[in-house]
């Protein structure tokens, strides 16, 4: 029987509860097709005026001297500013290039390297702007209008956390919608066409996208989980949803479930936590369940997924502990 927790099918954000027997589970039954494959310098200000001893009237000399002092000061301040800014700008530019490279490397089936700056080039010739240069007015605006640069900006922590995430630290929730629609499919049918069944622990089967080797990565997760003690495997023995094409409630954004690239599990009750279940007035801020970070078995499970390109929703400020999604551009 599905619990209250298993009825939510959305990733963190604006999840809603779904009726039992929702399309998630129907999709699981109906999309078992295809074949699973697993395999600077400072100027001196004490310089003598060149007019000294030349007969130039003193007042003029003073004016000149004053100008001489002012100009180097301007030059100095400008140079100083450049001295401070240039390295920072260079570092920021290098960071952008690094992030763009990481994105391209993560999706070799679709993206190819290009010398064109600020460009993500697809194999079919499509170009996407990496940094749209559009300032976002707040966190919701960032979620709604994320550029590819925004998508890569928040680093996913590989280490196991010892404390709750900082406010709005949701690495992975910031997604560029157009990017993933093009990657995995821009309609339910298009995504379905890429789903393959992946055998899961205990002999069940879940549909997962074969795009980018996501299904193969899930296979590798399964195989590594099998090497862990049974009581650890038990944590993720019950998948409760993968593919579900639908915008996040109240938004036009699609979660990674829409692309068949995310999977939820029924975790032990104390660990099965979702931020919207724990919000508190007056500001409805979530209260991160720090105690879950003490669970060694959960940590083992999460680390297996991360080794194969998945991220875990439990590392988000807007936590979703049952949720794992394939985001090979983020871990590392
Ligand atoms: Zn989920």
Give a written overview of the molecule.
The protein is α+β, with helices and mostly antiparallel strands. The chain has a domain at 17-39 and 165-326: Muramoyl-pentapeptide Carboxypeptidase, domain 2, CATH 3.30.1380. The chain is 33% helix and 10% strand. It contains nine helices and nine strands. The strands form three sheets. A four-stranded antiparallel sheet has the order 6-7-9-8. A three-stranded antiparallel sheet has the order 1-2-3, covered by helices on one side. A two-stranded antiparallel ribbon has the order 4-5. Strand 1 (111-112) and strand 2 form a beta hairpin. Helix 7 (214-225) runs antiparallel to helix 9. It is globular and about 50 Å long. The two termini are 38 Å apart. Bound molecules: zinc ion. Zinc ion binds at residues 11, 257, 262, 264, 320, 323.
């Amino acid at each position: 029987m599905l619990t209250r927790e298993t009825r939510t099918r959305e990733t963190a954000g604006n999840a809603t509860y779904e009726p039992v027997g929702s399309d998630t589970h129907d999709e699981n039954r109906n999309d078992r097709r295809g074949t699973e494959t697993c395999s600077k310098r400072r100027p001196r200000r004490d310089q003598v005026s060149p007019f000294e001893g030349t007969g130039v009237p003193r007042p003029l000399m003073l004016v000149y001297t004053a100008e001489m002092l002012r100009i180097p000061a301007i030059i100095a301040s400008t140079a100083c500013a450049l001295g401070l800014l240039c390295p920072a700008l260079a570092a920021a530019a290098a960071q952008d290039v690094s992030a763009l490279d990481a994105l391209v490397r993560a999706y070799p089936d679709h993206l190819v390297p290009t010398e064109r700056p600020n460009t993500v080039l697809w194999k079919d010739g499509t170009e996407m702007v990496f940094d749209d240069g559009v300032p976002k007015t707040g966190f919701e605006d960032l979620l709604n209008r994320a550029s590819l640069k925004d998508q890569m900006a928040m680093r996913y922590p590989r280490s196991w956390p010892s404390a709750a995430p900082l406010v709005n630290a949701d690495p992975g929730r910031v997604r560029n919608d157009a990017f993933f629609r093009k990657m995995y499919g821009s309609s339910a049918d298009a995504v379905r066409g890429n789903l393959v069944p992946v055998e899961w622990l205990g002999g069940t089967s879940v549909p997962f996208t074969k795009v980018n080797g996501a299904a193969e990565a899930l296979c590798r997760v399964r195989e590594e989980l099998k090497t862990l003690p049974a009581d650890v495997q038990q944590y993720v023995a019950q998948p409760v949803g993968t593919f579900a094409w639908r915008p996040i409630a109240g938004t036009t954004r699609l979660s990674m479930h829409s692309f068949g690239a995310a999977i939820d599990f029924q975790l032990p009750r104390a660990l099965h936590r979702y931020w919207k279940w724990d919000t508190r007035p007056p500001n409805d801020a979530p209260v991160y369940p720090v105690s879950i970070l003490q669970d060694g078995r959960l940590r083992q499970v999460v680390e297996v997924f991360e080794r194969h390109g998945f991220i875990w929703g439990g590392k988000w400020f807007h936590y979703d502990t049952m949720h794992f999604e394939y985001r090979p551009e983020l871990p590392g």
